[in-house]
Amino acid sequence: MEKSWRWISVNAEEIKEITCIICPIGCRMKIQRVEGEIEIEGNGCPRGIEYAKEEMFDPRRTITSSIFVVGGEWPLVSVKTTRPVPKRDIFKVMSALKAARVSAPVKRGEILIKNVAGTGVDIVATKSVRKAS
Ligand code: SF4
Question: What pLDDT, in 10s, does the model give residues 19-39?
């Protein structure tokens, strides 16, 4: 699910509006910076507070994509990061995935790239690809 947020200005204060995606309820929250602190409104439970803090100070995303397969029944295998990566690293992770080649067979769950682009996160196959017959 894509997150939605925007900054608005209210009496020179900054407010960020986000939708929590931790559970299906999808609480709409307001995060406001007040004198070096942040105030959070609209969270339905404490997990929303942690999510809001992460979105403010260290936003991360799980990346799903594909990698070229050499000698496989399919030319690509779908992959994802084993953990969310900082948003600032998404471009370099995507570049690494575009340049990567793996040889068939590939098993679902197999780690295909360790520490992708120096992020400390691995890339795992989400499908299996057999060798071409
Ligand atoms: S704040 Fe709590 S209840 Fe609301 S969406 Fe997030 S996890 Fe769910």
Answer: 999 999 999 999 988 777 788
Amino acid at residue number 89: D
- Of the candidates 38, 36, 34, the one whose C-alpha atom is nearest the C-alpha of residue 18 is 38
User: How far does the centroid of ligand 1 lie from the alpha carbon of residue 42, in Å?
Assistant: 9
Distance CA 133, CA 122 (A): 29
| Ligand 1 pocket list (CB less than 6 A) | 20, 22-23, 25-27, 43-45, 47-48
- Say whether the peptide bond before residue 105 is cis (omega within 30 degrees of 0): yes
Domains plus CATH for the chain?
5-57 (no CATH), 64-125 (3.10.530.10)
Q: Is the pTM of this model over 0.85?
A: no
